[in-house]
Specification:
Layout (H helix, E strand, L loop, with lengths): L1 H19 L4 H15 L2 H15 L19 H10 L1 H27 L2 H8 L4 H7 L1 H5 L1 H5 L1 H10 L2 H7 L4 H10 L3 H29 L1 H6 L3
Helix pairs in contact: 1-2, 1-5, 2-5, 3-5, 3-11, 10-13, 11-12, 12-13
């Protein structure tokens, strides 16, 4: 969940800025970082950060808990320890998705900003901030809402390779162990759970699209 939240918090403002300030230095920088994020595999980034953290900072990046809290019962100290370990795995898991959503948000918002209703709003003297945020951004948010269908399974399973590299206690490594041990009951249960979450996520995505885009709400009334 922290990876998804970080993805949206980064991709939304960067994508809006990149579209509004097209061909600016910030736009080129966001485009370059987006291509880097799409090109570099998440597990390679995890390995590089683990190496840098161990060699130069003498810190272990893997896992969500320190050694003394792995088997300890839940307490405020354990929650705080998890909070300290959480940002880096969330950044690694969310980097590729962030780069992809930045490109999608930029392309969709550029298309909307060129449409006649935006030009009409500007001609009527509406402030630039309201012109951008009132309708074009809401329409360009459709890809964000439509990703919920596969983000919910991703929350549970996570990236299997990244979870193995970082020793994250997600369902992904558990599914891999079940397949290696040929435990078809456990593996089938996990796959069924992911399928149910995909259906639930798609339903929630449709509801969110109805709320964001008035064109979808009005389509059945024609």
């Amino acid at each position: 969940m922290s990876a998804i939240l970080l993805t949206w918090l980064l991709a939304l403002p960067i994508g809006i800025y990149s579209a509004v300030r097209q061909y600016s230095v910030g736009d080129y920088l966001a485009t370059f970082l987006g291509f880097i994020g799409l090109a570099v595999p998440s597990f390679m980034l995890a390995l590089v950060l683990m190496y840098v953290g161990f060699k130069y900072f003498n810190a272990s990046i893997g896992g969500l808990f320190s050694d003394e809290f792995i088997e300890a019962p839940w307490s405020l100290a354990k929650v705080w320890d998890m909070t300290k370990h959480l940002p880096l795995p969330a950044l690694i898991l969310g980097l590729a998705g962030t780069a992809q959503l930045i490109r999608i948000m930029r392309a969709n918002l550029l298309d909307e900003l060129r449409k006649p209703y935006v030009m009409t709003a500007r001609a009527r003297g509406v402030s630039e901030r309201r012109v951008i945020l009132k309708y074009p951004v809401r329409v360009a948010l459709n890809p964000f809402a439509s990703t919920i269908g596969y983000l919910l399974p991703y929350v549970v399973s996570g990236s299997i390779i990244v979870s193995l590299v970082l020793s994250l206690p997600t369902v992904g490594p558990l599914l891999l162990k079940a397949l290696v041990a040929q435990d078809m009951f456990l593996a089938g249960t996990i796959v069924l759970l992911l399928g149910v979450l995909t259906v639930v996520g798609t339903f929630l995505s449709d509801l969110l699209l109805l709320w964001i885009d008035p064109r979808i709400r009005m389509e059945g009334k024609r």
